[in-house]
Structures are given as C-alpha cells and as structure tokens.
Amino acid sequence: MTFRSGNPVVDRYIAEDYESVRGMSSRFAATICAHVIRRQSDLGIEGHFAEIGTFEGRFFIAMALGLGPTEKALGIDTFDWPDAGLIDRFHRHCARLGLDEERYITIKAAARDLPPDDVAMALGGPVRFWHIDGDHTPKSLSADLDLAVQSLHPKGILCLDDMLHPGYPLLIAALQAWLDRHPEMRVLAVIDREDIVAAAKVMICREDAIDLYGQDLVDTFPAHHWKLGADWGDYFAVVLTPKPRLATVE
Q1: Which InterPro entries would you find in this protein's record (predicted)?
Q2: What is the pTM of this model?
Q3: What is the residue range of 83's domain?
C-alpha cells in the first residue's frame, strides 16, 4: 500500500483484519483518519474517540486501537439493525482484535435522543475525534453534529461519512446549512470515495485548528493529494483520493 497511518498496531489491523469485520468503510479512509489521531497524539492533543453508527465495529476498532492508554472509545448505536445480535457481534470483534472492554464504552440508543451530558459523563472528558455515520437523513445529520460539537476538543475533528454519496445527495446541503450556523467551523479535508460502498468522508474542525492538520495531510499522503482542492466558496479544503487525476477527454 502507498498509504499508512504510522501507527503499527492500527496499520496491522487495517492490512490484515479490517475486512474480517463486516462494514462499508474503506481502508484508505480509515488509514487517513488513524493518521490524524496519531498526529493529535504527537501534538499533545488528548481526548477520546466517539462514533455514531458503530455497526459491527470495523472503523471503530481501527480508531480505538490508535488511542492512548488513558483514552477511551465510545460507540453509539441502536444496535438493532439488521438484527438484535448486532451488539454481540460488535463485542466479539472487539475482543478478537485486541480491544478489551476497559478501553471502550457503548451506548445503545439513537444519538438524537441523547442529552449532550450523556457523552461527557460517559467519557469524562472531551472528544478529540468524532465519526458520524448515523441515520442518513438531513435532520439526523444536523442533530448528530449538534450533539458532537458540544463535546468536541477545541482542536478536535468531526468526520462525516457518506458525504457526496449518490444515494444521499441532501446530506451535503444539510452540512452546508450547519456550517453556515457555525462560522467558527470549516472543512479541513475531503477523503474521496473508492466505490458506491466506500463513500467519501469530510473532516471538519475549528478554523483556528486548520494549520495543525492541513499541510501535514498533504505532506504525509503526497501520492493521494488532488492538488486542485475542494472549493467551499471562500476557501479550499484538502482532497485526498486513491487515484488523484483529472478527467481525460477523448
């Protein structure tokens, strides 16, 4: 592979066991996100990881394995789809792949029904990396963002899954409306899709934290940097893609 997070434990899991956990997140996106978590650790940014829409734990395990010894991972899911056995499969995957129960917490609920204090109480501190992969409706996305931003570390990341997905075109409109209400936040990077399943992610952070991550992503993944960038109106965000290229005209 031409991409690695730099954390040997995470990279081994992504290379050898990632697809043994049922899910739709790609190795490419997981590697970049795990690198950001490692970058945060290198910068002394401490906090937890939280995910809305944990499913069987494919992406969750990768991020949790990259945390420090005193940090925890929180998985929020109704754990009732496609069947009631989902939560048991999730716990089995965690145990099988080296994530013991002292390192993570689950909340079996819809994120939109959670008071913000529940997240803070469960973790006892800020979240430095949020992954939002819940109900794919504009209303739910806005609610999930409102929940997540209240516990976000000042230098933390909000990562949204399935953005720019052809099956959920209204999500990007909901994101832009949310950004308009939160001018302190901006898009850091777009992690391009690989196929109809492994869809694009968008990473967001506070404007004053952009310099902590943007150039580092470009420098770390030069072979995957699409140099034109993502045009968000009054600024450009980094674009990382498996095959950075322009369309050809024949």
Answers
A1: SAM-dependent_MTases_sf
A2: 0.95
A3: 8-240
